[in-house]
Amino acid sequence: MASGLNALRSALPVAAALLALLLLWQFGTTALDVPAYILPKPAEILATALGRIGFFGGELYVTLVEAVGGFLIGSVLGILLAVAMILLPVLEVMLMPLAMVINAVPSIAFVPLVLLWFGLGMSSKIAIGALAVVFVVLLNLLSGLKRPEAESINLLRSFGASRLGILWRLQLPAGMPALVTGLRVGLARSTIAVIVAEMMGAYSGIGQVIYQATAQVDSLTVWAAVFVASLGSLALYGVLVALDRKLVWWR
Amino acid sequence: MSLQSAVRSPYAAVLIVAALWLVCVPLFSIPPRYLPPLPAVIADGVSVWPDLAAGFWRTLVETVLGFLAGSLLGITFGIAFAASKTLERAFFPIFVALQTVPVIAFGAIVVIWFGNTILAKVVIALYLAFFPVAVNTLRGLEQADPQRIALMKSFGASRLTLFRKLLLPTAAPNILIGMKLAVALSLAGAVVGEWFGDTVGLGVMLLQALYFELIPRVWVLIIACGALGTLLYGALALLERRFVWWRPD
Amino acid sequence: MADLAQAQAGATMPGQPYMELVNVWKRFGEGDKQTVAVRNVDLAIQPGEFVTLIGPSGCGKSTLFNMIAGLLPSDSDGSILVKGKAQQDGALLGKVSFMPQRDLLFPWRTVLDNATLALEVEGMPKRLARQKAEALFPEFGLKGFEQHYPHQLSGGMRQRVALMRTFLFERDLILLDEPFGALDALTRSMMQRWLLDIWEKHRRTVLFITHDIDEAIFLGDKVVVMTARPGTIKCQETITLPRPRDVSVVTTPEFMEVKKKLLAVVEEESLKTFASATMRP
């Protein structure tokens, strides 16, 4: 009850600010007579998005499937690699240079490559999404797994714990906050990478809608697509925040 | 220096990867469609050298201008949020939400506004750099220990002194974290911005390579983008060593 | 009481020490850079005995401790014997219940699950381990805090959870490395009396590191003084103060006499450490 009231109290200023911004935008553009191709009114954008809800929904669905698919593949791969490296340090010595070099390149630079390799369909978007996630998750989790001090590891060793026991009971829980950070950055990156890949070459998806509408200077559709894409990634972000609370319940 | 830390040095990493590339392509006869031999990539890079240099420079300028302006704006907003609780409570959640938005999509709108000028790319880079810097500046400023603030106040420090002597140094590590995130995003923004129509830049060349399916050229540009990103990141790391020499406790 | 101790310590022959350190050394590094952390340590610990160890800071106490816990191999010129048998590298792991200086509670585990950590590592089913731990909560003054997280507890309570974790890992020898070092004086003296209560009840063999002379005398059957680095044993003092002990014991003439004697020895060693630290360029 009290927490509900608190939530309301903290949501109130945000809602007020949001409303004020929207009103300013709506009436500002009306008063100054700003043409729609420069800045459409929020009501128009909403009307466009709602008017073609089936179309936008379908395109967003494609984008979300690609982003989530790439995110899942990339994060599972990143987690497995990090665990393998912590158990077999020789693997870290061998693979770390490659991971660092690939991670230094903005993942969008790989977009042409995955398009040439995997074609214009969904698989190329999933591949770029996975690529955008895997190293962030790997590097974050690896540094998290290394966080526990020697003292804590020694304590478990003195109880007779095996290497795997130490990983399971100490390093993995201690690495959770770092993993969640990696997942959060990774999700944002994979969404961006997928949309960018769609802009560059795709049969469908929100990015392709934006690209085509830009070419036709169809400002309203661009704005509506950006609005829909934002709702989509906000929803994904919400899922991740909930996951964060589940994985890192202690402070 | 242990083997592990030697491997973590960026120079060694580049050398190791180059050596692997040289050896593995003929050894496993990897088709050039996936990975052309390193000499072929280098030869292609040399053949387009003037374009490559001009493109590198242009993208660098776009990224740096956008990044600097975005960081400055971000720090300003971070400070404003830290100074005013009302402002923070009303607008900060909107910022956090906007940060998760696939901001690159706004690139299209910016190009509509500014046309195919360099300004369009700078604005996109600025926009992308802004959020991580603002959010991290606020987080950093909020980390100041209340007891240390009380100590400063007991010395009779004014708000400005408090800010300059305590709050800003406390926040500096976080601001730099935000800036490191931002510089990579700025680069991505500049490259993508060039796709919406331009004639010079790494992004333009990337798009051309895609259309003509020039795989060695794509690799040249991947390396160029990586080099540009590393250069900027390295400059920030130097800055960090200059301004954050202590370790937060 | 003594019979019980014998029974619990297992197959120790009468008069045979539970653990014996014979000429134990530990050197780090090679050639010129070699430093000796622990040198020529001989020590016997009887079953059920409470041995306290004091020495100036940096004297190699922790190195010695890590060797006894099996975390660090000792150099090959000496040996560590348990019930007369020499222990090879790592053989001591899982045989000694070890409590490091800091409580090292895991922030993601409740108090109850922190206490059962060692039992879980041993492979005991969670439910059984919890039942076993729950029985100890009143004795350790933690009743009602089973489901709390470490950050919700005071320093003294955290230390008791760490001690409970150590006690639940039922081994013949308990190693405690300055367990009360971080506590304030009042909490500390309460914890000391409480530890003695627990010890009288369970009668395990204890090796307790401290740098507080009062604590060493108040708790121990035997006080062992280490020299400045490289650490070795300077002297051993048997404490004959009657048990059970309470606060009043610290003001008795017997206590004062032992303290005077030990204070002189410890002072001498501390001065050596201090001098060598201040004379370095």
UniProtKB/TrEMBL annotation, chain A:
Record-linked InterPro entries: MetI-like, MetI-like_sf
Keywords assigned by UniProt, alphabetized: Cell membrane, Membrane, Transmembrane, Transmembrane helix, Transport
Gene Ontology terms: cellular component: plasma membrane
Transmembrane segments: 67-91, 98-120, 126-145, 166-186, 192-211, 223-243
Entries under Gene3D superfamilies matching the protein: MetI-like
SUPFAM superfamilies linked: MetI-like
PROSITE patterns per the UniProt record, alphabetical: ABC_TM1
Topology with respect to the bilayer: Multi-pass membrane protein
Keyword hit for RNA-binding: no
UniProt keyword Membrane, yes or no: yes
BP GO annotations: transmembrane transport
Domain ABC transmembrane type-1, residue spans: 60-240
Location of this chain's protein in the cell: Cell membrane
Similarity field: Belongs to the binding-protein-dependent transport system permease family.
Listed name of the protein: NitT/TauT family transport system permease protein
Species in which this protein is naturally found: Kaistia hirudinis
TrEMBL record, chain B:
CDD domains, per database record: TM_PBP2 (cd06261)
Subcellular location: Cell membrane
Protein's membrane topology: Multi-pass membrane protein
TM ranges: 12-30, 64-83, 90-112, 118-138, 175-197, 217-239
GO cellular component terms attached to this protein's record: plasma membrane
Recorded family membership: Belongs to the binding-protein-dependent transport system permease family.
Keywords attached to this entry: Cell membrane, Membrane, Transmembrane, Transmembrane helix, Transport
One of the GO biological process terms: transmembrane transport
SUPFAM superfamilies given in the database record: MetI-like
Residues forming coiled coils: none
Name the UniProt record assigns to this protein: NitT/TauT family transport system permease protein
Gene3D superfamilies: MetI-like
Cited Pfam families: BPD_transp_1
PROSITE patterns reported in the protein's UniProt record: ABC_TM1 (PS50928)
Organism in which the protein naturally occurs: Kaistia hirudinis
InterPro entries named among the record's database cross-references: MetI-like, MetI-like_sf
Domain (ABC transmembrane type-1): residue spans on this chain: 56-240
Top-rank taxon, per record: Bacteria
TrEMBL record, chain C:
UniProt key word Flavoprotein: no
Keywords: ATP-binding, Nucleotide-binding, Transport
InterPro entries, sorted: AAA+_ATPase, ABC_transporter-like_ATP-bd, ABC_transporter_ATP-bind, P-loop_NTPase
Domain ABC transporter, residue spans: 19-253
Residue ranges of coiled coil: none
UniProt keyword Cytoplasm, yes or no: no
UniProt xrefs under PROSITE patterns: ABC_TRANSPORTER_2 (PS50893)
GO molecular function, one term: ATP binding
Signal peptide (residue range): none
Family per similarity comment: Belongs to the ABC transporter superfamily.
PANTHER family: ABC TRANSPORTER ATP-BINDING PROTEIN (PTHR42788:SF2), TAURINE IMPORT ATP-BINDING PROTEIN-RELATED (PTHR42788)
Protein's recorded name: ABC-type nitrate/sulfonate/bicarbonate transport system ATPase subunit
Organism, as annotated: Kaistia hirudinis
